[in-house]
């Protein structure tokens, strides 16, 4: 079968992913041009939140690339893209605060984050191995090989799914902290939601793509076994 019914959902998820990326870029650019009234930069906001949460040992470093912001749980370091690190906009402090949310999750051993860290090496292996097993299984018409590929691919999908609560929780923490700590005023919260909600949508789209692809392979596997 050249076209599987699940392909409709996969294409829809790809469309959502593309739309989400456009929204992320659009909202970040828009709110990057709106200065935070406190005048804080992303780096200053990050340092303030880290210190107030007892994370004095966690450094904040600039890193090249657009929206390359992340928290490194191995080195315990917050890395912010230059636009966020030096920027003094609502978008800059919003993204910076989101990454501090991850640092606090790490400190508190937030269960979803701990599980995500444990799954990372497995998901990394699965992402590189599963496609070859699935392609090989289809070419050789070996259902057992496809089945192994599906099991391994499921680990990568699980990683995508567990990422969702991690990201949503970090954004929720960021929104609460920014207002509570006086980094932004309450009437600036609208911009925060626009920036962080758009970013969260990209993770939702990615998870849906992976999940629908997994379901498609599972359906093909069971159909193949029935034909045999």
From TrEMBL:
PANTHER family: MEMBRANE PROTEASE YUGP-RELATED. Keywords: Membrane, Transmembrane, Transmembrane helix. Pfam families: Zn_peptidase_2 (PF04298). The chain crosses the membrane at residues 6-22, 119-140, 146-168, 200-222. This is Peptidase. The keyword Zinc does not apply. InterPro entries: Zn_peptidase_2 (IPR007395). The keyword Nuclease does not apply.
């Amino acid at each position: 079968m050249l076209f599987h019914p699940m392909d409709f959902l996969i294409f829809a998820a790809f469309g959502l992913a593309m739309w989400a990326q456009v929204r992320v870029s659009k909202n970040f650019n828009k709110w990057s041009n709106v200065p935070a009234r406190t005048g804080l930069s992303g780096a200053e906001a990050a340092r303030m939140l880290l210190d107030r949460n007892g994370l004095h040992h966690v450094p904040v470093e600039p890193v090249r690339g657009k929206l390359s912001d992340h928290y490194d749980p191995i080195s315990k370091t917050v890395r912010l893209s230059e636009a966020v690190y030096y920027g003094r906009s609502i978008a800059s402090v919003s993204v910076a605060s989101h990454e501090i949310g991850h640092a606090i999750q790490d400190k508190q051993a937030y269960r979803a984050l701990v599980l995500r860290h444990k799954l990372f090496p497995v998901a990394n292996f699965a992402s590189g191995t599963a496609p070859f097993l699935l392609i090989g299984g289809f070419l050789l018409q070996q259902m057992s090989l496809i089945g192994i590929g599906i099991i391994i691919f499921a680990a990568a999908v699980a990683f995508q799914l567990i990422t969702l609560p991690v990201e949503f929780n970090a954004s929720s923490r960021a929104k609460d902290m920014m207002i509570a700590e006086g980094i932004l005023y309450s009437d600036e919260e609208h911009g925060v939601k626009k920036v962080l909600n758009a970013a969260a949508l990209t993770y939702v789209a990615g998870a849906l793509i992976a999940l629908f692809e997994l379901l498609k392979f599972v359906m093909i596997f069971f159909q193949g076994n029935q034909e045999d």
